[in-house]
């Protein structure tokens, strides 16, 4: 058995050898730790405050007059108030459905469009690319968009929440650039082996572009999940509203109750600030759940175009 | 005009309603109906409902009926059965509350439809988004049967004339007697419905006694203070006695509304003053304003105003609830809300309200509020359809003491509320179910009632009697000014947030205030004055 010679190889470089990455003196390391601790606290404490406030009872919130850092008598009243009545749970289903179906449609449309545009010499790709770029420069107004959706017969339909925003020109251009940067030899080889465009796309281009597709998918998913304005203008029945629009009524409307426009009350909802905190938690949870699974691709994906070669 | 309902007109009306001032200022070919026609519109007769006797009777001047308890056997609002059988009714309106569960899960909504005799479909829009949704719906041209039209919607006369039904043939004079609950709405709430030479909507009546200067009666008692100052000097002393800046306790929160209270002491104009047909804006009354601002400076200097009050929005109610401030100017419905929100966690929590005394003693004034929230306009339709809609909305205006009022405000027994004696007390499901915005469809005149306790009813009634006694109305209320509709609030707010608050804190001087008022005149103030004067004169022509 021959030994593997390391002669001629560069010695592995440890991180400590990188300038600026040295461990340094204990004092320096302590100072760095403190700075990092402060940075973490700046992110963690507001999140903790929101979580605590959502769990705080009315007495504590009335006493502090706002956010609390730790709930003295934790309660789920705010979540019960939000999830009671079935409206929020149904809206959550609507949101999940819109996000999943919308993301799939958006990805399908964007990938196929980007692939077509990335192939040199494909029919009409320059004018279509120009149209895409123009749609980035000139955004249609709300009323023309509404009239178009209305004429397509999509008012009060879930499709009105998906189709008008199904293709995002920016995402298509990013994907197109990624596809165009793939070595042409791969597609040429596939073509020689008898593969058609569809097979090349699904068997070669897409597997090589997982990171880019994951990032674009995340962009689409987040935008579908967060969108409320389309639902506001296109959906007439509140029973069909997505979660974000229902939650918006709690955030915006409760702050307006002070204007004295409520009916004769008989019981009070949990304090506004607790409801708002619970809303924040509810609305970030799905993204927080999805993010770890996509994080690997996301970190790769955000490097797209950063380094050439 | 009604015949010229072209796509272009509809689109332009929609664009105008999108609250784009630049577009609203452009000529677009939509003819404005003559103001003189408004003088010919006869308002509906006022026929007060006598079916339930109040414990504390209201007055014509504006004190609301007070009820200690809900009648054990509510009067049937529709004794002859559902009055509006026919095709379903689509209503688009707004809500300030979280949106209610859909009809399939909301027994209140289902029973309301059953009582009316047809399906009532609500398109509910959060209040902040209503102007946009309204503009788009108008632009789309596919209108629901009834829509809430906000007082701030631009181009109202032309839009109403083109798209909505003139209800004067149905409701003017004695015509309204066919709809007894609409006839129970006071005349003052109907007057803003007169636009474009017709009666273009149904009112959503509100109390004319406006807002109230609430105070924490428990804190006053604890500190042994008299909560009814007889002059500004006594008010200042009271504020000093309440305030303890070292422990973050202050008398007042919002400096702007505290200024209103001082202006009430000085008999300042309620937005506008009319003398011989000439209108003067409240901030144009220089002597009164100067004196009021100086008084505010004294309050600020004495550290009686919460230091964050100048920049904070929407926290005053919470500060009042947790005792950071002890005096807070708020809408009258805040009385019950405060008791529910803060009384639930603080058994000592007690509130009452004061009326402004004269600045140097004697009687002060109290500014009247708007007697109507907005109008519910009905889409143009054949006579039978309009009558069906009016019968439905008549039922939605059934007053306190009827079974339909109980249903609208408290829902269904067992599901939404439980009786405490004769009084319905909402549970948390009821709170969301009653979010159905019937209050913003049309409504009965408001009443004073607190199911949990009779004492706040007496206190509110007593306050309203004192307030109505010195009530100052806004002469421009109910008159239409396009400039005021599109620019009024912004221009007013700019002056309050800039030079007025600056003067109170000492960062602006009197010249800055005067310059701001001069600028207001140039940039639209004089125009809106002219429009109000014209509208006022046209009604008296």
From TrEMBL, chain A:
It is found in: Cell membrane. Keywords: Cell membrane, Membrane, Transmembrane, Transmembrane helix, Transport. InterPro entries: MetI-like (IPR000515), MetI-like_sf (IPR035906). The keyword Signal does not apply. The keyword Protein transport does not apply. It is a multi-pass membrane protein. It holds the Pfam family BPD_transp_1. Residues 1-23 are annotated as: Disordered. The chain crosses the membrane at residues 34-56, 92-116, 128-149, 161-182, 211-235, 273-294. It comes from the Bacteria. Belongs to the binding-protein-dependent transport system permease family. This is Carbohydrate ABC transporter permease. It comes from Streptomyces spinosisporus. The lineage of its organism: Bacteria, Bacillati, Actinomycetota, Actinomycetes, Kitasatosporales.
UniProtKB/TrEMBL annotation, chain B:
Residues 1-24 form the signal peptide. PROSITE patterns: PROKAR_LIPOPROTEIN, TAT. Gene3D superfamilies: Periplasmic binding protein-like II (3.40.190.10). Keywords: Signal, Transport. The keyword Coiled coil does not apply. InterPro entries: Bact_solute-bd_prot1 (IPR050490), SBP (IPR006059), TAT_signal (IPR006311). Its main location: other. It is found in: Cell envelope. It comes from the Bacteria. This is Extracellular solute-binding protein.
């Amino acid at each position: 058995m021959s030994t593997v010679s390391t002669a001629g190889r560069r010695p592995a470089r440890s991180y400590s050898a990188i300038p600026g990455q040295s461990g340094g003196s204990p004092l320096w390391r302590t100072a760095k730790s403190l700075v990092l601790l402060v940075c973490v606290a700046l992110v963690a404490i507001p999140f903790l405050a929101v979580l605590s406030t959502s769990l705080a009872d009315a007495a504590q919130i009335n006493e502090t007059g706002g956010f609390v850092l730790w709930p003295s008598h934790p309660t789920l009243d705010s979540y019960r108030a939000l999830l009671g009545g079935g409206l929020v749970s149904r809206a959550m289903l609507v949101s999940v459905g819109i996000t999943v179906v919308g993301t799939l449609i958006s990805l399908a449309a964007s990938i196929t469009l980007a692939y077509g545009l990335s192939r040199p010499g494909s029919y009409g790709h320059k004018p279509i690319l120009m149209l895409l770029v123009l749609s980035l420069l000139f955004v249609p107004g709300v009323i023309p968009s509404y009239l178009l959706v209305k004429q397509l017969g999509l008012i009060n339909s879930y499709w009105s929440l998906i189709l008008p925003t199904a293709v995002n020109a920016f995402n298509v251009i990013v994907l197109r650039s990624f596809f165009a940067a793939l070595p042409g030899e791969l597609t040429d080889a596939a073509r020689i082996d008898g593969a058609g465009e569809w097979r090349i796309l699904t068997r070669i281009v897409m597997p090589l572009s997982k990171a880019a597709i994951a990032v674009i998918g995340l962009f689409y998913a987040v935008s579908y999940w967060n969108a409320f304005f389309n639902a506001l203008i296109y959906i007439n029945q509140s029973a069909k509203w997505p979660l974000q629009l229902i939650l918006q009524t709690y955030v915006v409307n409760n702050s307006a109750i002070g204007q004295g426009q409520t009916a004769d009350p008989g019981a009070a909802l949990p304090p506004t600030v607790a409801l708002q905190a619970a809303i924040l938690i509810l609305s970030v949870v799905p993204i927080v759940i999805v993010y770890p699974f996509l994080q690997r691709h996301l970190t790769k994906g955000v490097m797209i175009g950063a380094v050439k070669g | 005009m009604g015949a010229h309902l072209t796509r272009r007109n509809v689109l332009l009306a929609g664009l105008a309603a999108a609250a784009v001032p630049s577009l609203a200022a452009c000529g677009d070919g939509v003819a404005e109906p003559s103001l003189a026609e408004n003088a010919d519109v006869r308002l509906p007769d006022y026929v007060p409902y006598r079916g339930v006797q109040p414990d504390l009777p209201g007055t014509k001047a504006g004190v609301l009926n007070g009820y200690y308890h809900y009648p054990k056997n509510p009067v049937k609002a529709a004794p002859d059965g559902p009055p509006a059988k026919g095709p379903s009714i689509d209503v688009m309106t707004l809500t300030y509350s979280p949106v209610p569960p859909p009809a399939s899960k909301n027994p209140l909504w289902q029973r309301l439809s059953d009582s009316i005799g047809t399906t009532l479909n609500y398109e509910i829009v959060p209040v902040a988004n209503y102007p946009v949704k309204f503009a788009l719906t108008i632009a789309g041209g596919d209108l629901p049967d009834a829509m809430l039209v906000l007082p701030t919607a631009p181009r109202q006369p032309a839009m109403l004339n083109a798209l909505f039904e003139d209800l004067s043939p149905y409701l003017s004079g004695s015509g309204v007697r066919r709809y007894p609950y609409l006839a129970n709405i006071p005349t003052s709430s109907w007057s803003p419905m007169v636009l474009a030479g017709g009666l273009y909507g149904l009112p959503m009546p509100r109390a004319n006694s406006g807002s109230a200067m609430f105070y924490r009666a428990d804190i006053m008692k604890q500190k042994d203070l008299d909560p009814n100052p007889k002059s500004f000097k006594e008010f200042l002393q009271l504020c000093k006695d309440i305030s303890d800046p070292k422990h973050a306790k202050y008398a007042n929160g919002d400096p702007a509304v505290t200024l209103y209270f001082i202006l009430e002491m000085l008999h300042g104009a309620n937005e506008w003053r009319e003398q011989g047909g000439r209108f003067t804006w409240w901030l144009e009354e220089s002597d009164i304003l100067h004196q009021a601002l100086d008084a505010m400076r004294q309050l600020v200097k004495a550290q009686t105003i919460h230091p964050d009050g100048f920049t904070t929005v929407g926290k005053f109610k919470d500060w009042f609830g947790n005792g950071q401030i002890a005096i807070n100017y708020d809408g009258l419905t805040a009385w019950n809300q405060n008791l529910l929100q803060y009384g639930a966690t603080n058994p000592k929590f007690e509130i009452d309200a004061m009326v402004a005394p004269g600045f140097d003693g004697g009687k002060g004034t109290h500014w009247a509020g708007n007697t109507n929230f907005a109008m519910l306009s009905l889409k143009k339709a054949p006579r039978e359809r309009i009558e069906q809609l009016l019968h439905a909305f008549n039922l939605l205006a059934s007053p306190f003491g009827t079974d339909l009022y109980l249903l609208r405000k408290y829902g269904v027994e067992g599901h939404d509320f439980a009786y405490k004696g004769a009084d319905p007390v909402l549970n948390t499901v009821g709170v969301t179910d009653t979010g159905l915005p019937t209050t913003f469809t049309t409504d009965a005149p408001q009443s004073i009632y607190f199911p949990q306790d009779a004492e706040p009813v007496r206190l509110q009634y007593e306050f309203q009697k004192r307030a109505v006694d010195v009530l100052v109305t806004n002469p421009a209320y109910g008159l239409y000014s396009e400039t005021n509709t599109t620019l009024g609030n912004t221009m007013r707010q700019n002056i309050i947030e800039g030079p007025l608050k600056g003067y109170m804190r000492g960062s602006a001087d009197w010249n800055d205030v005067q310059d701001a008022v001069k600028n207001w005149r140039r940039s639209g103030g004089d125009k809106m004055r002219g429009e109000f004067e014209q509208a006022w004169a046209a009604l008296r022509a």
